[in-house]
Design a protein that fits this description.
The complex is a heterodimer of chains A (277) and B (342). Chain A is mainly alpha-helical. In chain A, 78% of the residues lie in helices and 0% in strands. Chain A has two domains: 1-35, no CATH class; 40-276, MetI-like fold (Orthogonal Bundle), CATH 1.10.3720. The chains are: A mainly alpha (277), B alpha+beta (342).
Chain lengths: 277, 342
């Protein structure tokens, strides 16, 4: 190793140490503890317990995040598509200004907003009752799985829209005009010309949202803390109420396995993009 | 004369406060190829885009085959445009690109396949149907873009500087192919270009556009030999301009402080001839000057000549040094004389 290589290593060392000390080591430790029994030997007991108690929550978490991801994708494509192909400049400008707001609102504030909005006596039911669309006796609370999905979609759709709108804006305008010139309606232009050319960015945005939603504690804790709930609530409960780090670690690894599916998609798309570049 | 197929009548287009097209009128006969020729920003592409429906005229009307399409959306106009960047969709192969317009018209799958094969054959691209767009050369992309436009049998083919991204040799080759193809298919076409040679080679008629207006509309021969204004003369290559006055049978430079309004004579560099120092040919314009710059063109030289404060260019086979004095004669039939604009 020459002097230059040493200098390079010295420069990277502080960052490397921080990553190893505060990220890699705790992660490995957590993984090890998930497999270690009280006697110090290797065991799958914590996973068995986690599956016995929380398999429904595991499925619930996966389903909530998948449904939210699908809804985020649909909304992001609709908004970004209108921003790209919309012909009314005023509506486009208003939408462009409006859609980004939730980006700057933290998850916990979003959860609180949704509690006020979706509760039995919340604003949504008040408005629906006020305009005569809902009988007051039929009003019900949406603070269950639906509330979590609404909160996730409200918070994450702008993030994916931001990415997808950027990718759509980068599509050569003449590609759009060529399709319209040959008889394609704006819907067909969106789904056959613009979206296929922005598909990778959409996928990346959805994967990042998928992983983010999987790790959010505040939203399920504030909207739907009772079973079935999301794994993040279970992890917090094992630690705070029982001091049971072993099962909490097993749940963490199961959560990580779900997130890894997303990461695998992300890396595959990134590799394809690099190949195509 | 048959009724015009495409009619643009007093079409005006403005981008905000900037008026890009100013009451432009243009008639195109069925099967005719009209070139819109002009420099960058003159409005030629805007006129094409207004015909395609991508730009809304603030005034005037556009009709094709008697049908008013001024407010018809682009997808319902039946025109097909070939773009400067070709705008081929990279996520579709060659066949899917060519067949897209037919798919939009609801053609059956086998009908699309038959038409795509026909186009590939016509454009000498047989066997390229399954190729990715990224695997094509510039010339091949140009053909695919043309095939995509022709496949739908459009009422009017609109071509926006389709050769500007190609190198000179490919451009020359494709220029002749395009003309032959247009004649064979008999399609009505409008061709936007800033290249006068391209316009002269391809077009049945040329519309020279200047600052959002048609400065002259005529056959290539008319526009080249009988330009209607100094701008058209300059654009068509007669870019030498000197102030002259009539002196009997010939034109001459106005003497300093001369009374009477002089006019301006335009001429092409290749029509000026170097004559002997004492020689005074009959008629035309004789100019005495000094060579101030020499440019080698390959078969001959191009000289910049300074004469009584005026600069002009001539072409001559003999090599002369800078600073050499010479006498130049421009015959009457090479002089395009216009009054000097106020």
């Amino acid at each position: 190793m020459n002097e230059r290589s040493w200098a390079g290593l010295a420069l990277a060392l502080p960052a490397l140490l921080v990553v190893v000390t505060f990220f890699v080591a705790p992660l490995l430790m957590s993984a090890v503890l998930a497999f270690r029994g009280k006697d110090g030997g290797l065991t799958l007991m914590h996973f068995e317990k986690a599956i016995e108690f929380y398999s429904t929550d595991l499925l619930f978490s996966g389903a909530i995040v998948l449904v939210s991801t699908a809804a985020i994708g649909a909304i992001a494509v609709a908004i970004a598509g209108y921003l790209t192909l919309g012909e009314n400049p005023r509506t486009v400008a208003i939408l462009r200004w409006l859609y980004r707001w939730p980006l700057f609102i933290p998850f916990i504030v979003t959860a609180q907003v949704m509690r006020t909005f979706l509760a039995k006596n919340g604003m949504l039911n008040h408005v629906l009752t006020g305009v005569g669309l809902l009988d007051p006796l039929q009003a019900q609370s949406l603070l269950d799985w639906r509330g979590i999905v609404v909160a996730f979609v409200w918070k994450q759709a702008p993030f994916v829209t931001l990415l997808v709108a950027g990718a759509m804006a980068a599509v050569d305008r003449q590609h759009i005009e060529a399709a319209r010139n040959l008889g394609a309606s704006r819907w067909r232009v969106l789904f056959e010309i613009v979206l296929p050319q922005s598909r990778r960015t959409l996928m990346v945005g959805l994967v990042l949202s998928f992983v983010t939603m999987l790790s959010v504690l505040s939203v399920p804790l504030m909207i739907n803390p009772n079973s079935p709930t999301m794994l993040t609530v279970d992890i917090a409960y094992r630690i705070n109420s029982h001091g049971d780090y072993a099962v909490a670690n097993a749940l963490c690894l199961m959560s990580l396995a779900l997130a890894s599916l997303g990461a695998w998609f992300y890396l595959r798309e990134a590799a394809r993009k690099a190949d195509g570049a | 004369m048959p009724a015009p197929y495409l009619v643009a009548e007093n079409v005006s287009v403005a981008y905000g406060p900037v008026r890009v097209l100013d009451r432009v009128s243009l008639d195109v006969a069925r099967g005719e190829l009209v070139a819109l020729l002009g420099s960058s920003g003159c409005g030629k592409t805007t006129l094409l885009r207004a015909i395609a429906g991508f730009v809304r005229p603030t005034d005037g009307r556009i009709a094709v085959d008697g049908r008013d399409i001024t407010h018809t959306p682009p997808e319902a106009r039946g025109t097909a445009m070939m773009f400067q960047s070709y705008a081929l969709w990279p996520h579709m192969d060659v066949a899917a690109n060519i067949g897209y317009g037919l798919r939009m018209r609801g053609a059956a799958r086998d009908e699309i396949a038959r038409r795509v094969d026909e186009m590939l054959k016509l454009l000498k691209l047989e066997g390229y149907g399954g190729r990715a767009i990224s695997a094509l050369s510039g010339g091949q992309k140009q053909r695919v873009a043309l095939g995509r436009a022709l496949a739908v049998d459009p009422s009017v083919l609109l071509l926006d500087e389709p050769m500007s991204n190609l190198d000179y040799r490919v451009r020359l080759e494709l220029r002749h192919e395009l003309r032959a193809l247009q004649k064979r298919v008999g399609i009505t076409a409008i061709y936007v270009t800033h290249d006068r040679e391209e316009a002269l080679t391809l077009a049945d008629r040329i519309a020279v556009i200047d600052a959002g207006r048609i400065a002259q509309l005529g056959t290539p021969d008319e526009v080249f030999h009988r330009p209607s204004s100094p701008f058209v003369a300059g654009f068509m290559g007669a870019d030498n301009a000197v102030d002259v006055v009539r002196a009997g049978e010939r034109w001459t430079r106005p003497p300093p402080g001369a009374a009477g309004a002089p006019v301006r004579a335009h001429f092409r560099a290749d029509r000026a001839r170097v004559v002997g120092a004492g020689e005074t040919p009959a008629g035309g314009l004789v100019l005495d000057g000094v060579v101030s710059q020499r440019v080698y063109l390959g078969t001959e030289y191009r000289y910049r000549v300074r004469s009584d404060g005026a600069d002009f260019w001539i072409e001559d086979g003999a090599r002369r040094d800078e600073g050499t004095s010479l006498r130049v004669h421009v015959p009457d039939d090479a002089l395009l004389v216009f009054p000097i604009a106020a």
